Amino acid sequence: MRLVIIKASMAPPPMPSNEPVQALYQDHHGWLYGWLRHHMGSAADAADLAQDTFVRLLQRSEHLHLQKPRAFLRTVARGLVIDHWRREELHKAYLEALAHLPQAHAPSVETQELLLELLERIAVMLDGLKPKVRTAFLLAQCEGLKHKEIAQRMGLSVRTVERHIADALYHCYLLRYDMQ
Amino acid sequence: MTCAPPDAKTVRQAITWRVALREHGNDPAFEQRCIQWRSACPSHELAWQRVVHLDQELDLRAVPAAGLALRTLETSHKRLQRRQALKLLGGLAMVGSAAWLAKDLDLISPWSSDYATATGERRHITLADGTRLQLNTRSAVDVAFNGQQLVVKLKRGELMLDCRQTLHPQLPVRVYAKDALLQAFDSRVALRLEGDCAHASFSHGRLAAQHAETGGWQWLEPDQAWRVTHDGAQREQPASMDALAWTEGLIVTRDMRLADFLAQVSRYRHGYLTCSDNIADMRLSGVFRLDDPEQLVRLLPRTLPVQLRELTRWWIRVERLS
């Protein structure tokens, strides 16, 4: 699997080179930046994500003939804002969880960096799962708990736990293999 | 022959087997029944393989401080859900860019294609007119033959096409790749799709690329690297990798960037393989066997001053040797 993670950069935005995207950029970049700024508060974050949105469009393979360009841009940008906030929350939660860990058990700095990347990928995959499905799945995947233990911990029947775990895997399968 | 895509029911069954096997582990009778189910139909086996790969990628038990992982994922998720600003963004489900990212990743299902290969698979096919086609890993093509003209459409990945011994040697084979259209006469052509772009090279015979606007054809020179779009072909820098070595099961590199090399190796294996920025530009020359990409990765520290950092077998980053 290759996931594209675009690093936020503070460099002045280069113009996209692909023509339809360039037209979109000229017409709507200012508007998109305003929309993002309104929702994110930070001007720098908004500028980065507005830029990322167009970079994403450049990476898409099909041609863009858009009826409602702003609705489309908003959808793409919205996904990126959620990614951005998810990453922020992950970093914060991670540092807090780490603080609770005895020093000797803490992974090395390099491992931590990689671990965060891995956690982000998994969090992305699990987006949209119902909370109980998500928790049951994570208890099995992270802690390696038996179904019975998960059932006890969550106050559910073993059958329900098994169904939740299967549902979570199915969700990931659809995401990965794009089954219609 | 192509295998039918696993339908929802088959995928569900594969997941049920996987979850049960993980839970009940070492019951030989149970395992045997699972093997029977897998071998009942190729689509069962395919669904099984995918589910196992996915489950292994999502397996965090081996990760250092797995409790940390659980806590981080759960806390951050709850807080993200609670963010007021999120609601103002509009839309129903709280889903990031993952859904359409997946589509961008060339993870499109190959099963609607005439011929396709899975990760790490290579395949030889002889087509109706005698043209020999070879598909590299994660590739898909559609093929049409009307009795005279052969049309091949590369939908993703990489192919090698040899039309030197066909029923109608005077007729070219038409090859589509995204926006590009090529005609191969009595030729051996290598073609690879990367993003929006097709990369072609050929030996023997002749190869032409079409200009979509004028409809005119441009003849290409053999033994060069070409980038082909709807605007015809442009010559590329000599590649740092032998374009046809994969047909022999090899990667042959000359002064290739490590990051580019790892991106190539990633095409042949499941999981996540990358390197830290400070060694991305390290250069690599050599001949590498593709039949065991895991081994290939393991041996990197013998060739370069690097070490592997891995969270699980599936998540590997190459780093500078400290």
Number of strands of chain B: 19
Distance between the termini of chain A: 20 Å
Given as residue ranges, the uncertain stretches of chain B (5+ residues, pLDDT < 50) are: 99-111
Count of the separate structural domains of chain A: 2
Number of helices of chain B: 9
Describe the biggest sheet of chain B?
7 strands, mixed
> Rg of chain A, please?
20 Å
Backbone shape of chain A: globular
Assess the beta-strand content of chain B as a share of residues: 25-35%
For the largest interface, the chains and their residue counts are: A-B, 73 and 74 residues
Q: Structurally, how many domains make up the residues of chain B?
A: 3
- What's the overall average pLDDT of chain A, rounded? 79
Shape of chain B: globular
Content-based structural category of chain A:
mainly alpha
Oligomeric grouping of the chains? heterodimer
Helix content of chain B: 25-40%
Structure summarized in a few sentences:
The complex is a heterodimer of chains A (180) and B (322). By secondary structure, chain A is mainly α.
What this model shows, in words?
The complex is a heterodimer of chains A (180) and B (322). With 180 residues, chain A is mainly α. Chain A has 2 domains: 13-106; 128-180, Arc Repressor Mutant, subunit A (Orthogonal Bundle), CATH 1.10.10. Chain A contains 7 helices and no strands. Chain A has helices at 19-40, 43-59, 69-99, 109-126, 131-143, 147-154, 158-177. Residues 1-16 of chain A have low confidence and may be disordered. By secondary structure, chain B is an alpha+beta fold. Chain B folds into 3 domains: 8-57; 111-235, Sandwich (Jelly Rolls), CATH 2.60.120.1440; 245-320, Phage tail protein beta-alpha-beta fold, CATH 3.55.50.30. Helices cover 29% and strands 31% of the residues of chain B. Chain B is built from 9 helices and 19 strands. Chain B has helices spanning 8-24, 28-39, 42-57, 66-82, 84-88, 98-104, 258-266, 293-298, 300-303; strands spanning 115-116, 123-126, 132-135, 140-145, 150-156, 158-162, 173-177, 180-185, 188-194, 197-203, 206-210, 217-219, 226-229, 232-235, 250-257, 272-275, 283-289, 306-312, 315-320. Chain B has a 7-stranded mixed beta sheet, with no helix packed on it. A 7-stranded antiparallel beta sheet of chain B has the order 2-3-6-9-10-13-14, with no helix packed on it. Chain B has a 3-stranded mixed beta sheet with strand order 16-19-18. In chain B, strand 18 (306-312) and strand 19 form a beta hairpin. The longest helix of chain B is centred in the N-terminal third of the chain and has 17 residues, at 8-24. Chain B is globular. Chain B starts with 7 loop residues before the first helix and ends with a strand. Residues 99-111 of chain B have low confidence and may be disordered. Classes of the chains: A mainly alpha (180), B alpha+beta (322). At the A-B interface, helix 3, helix 4, helix 5 and helix 7 of A face helix 1, helix 3, helix 4, helix 5 and helix 6 of B.
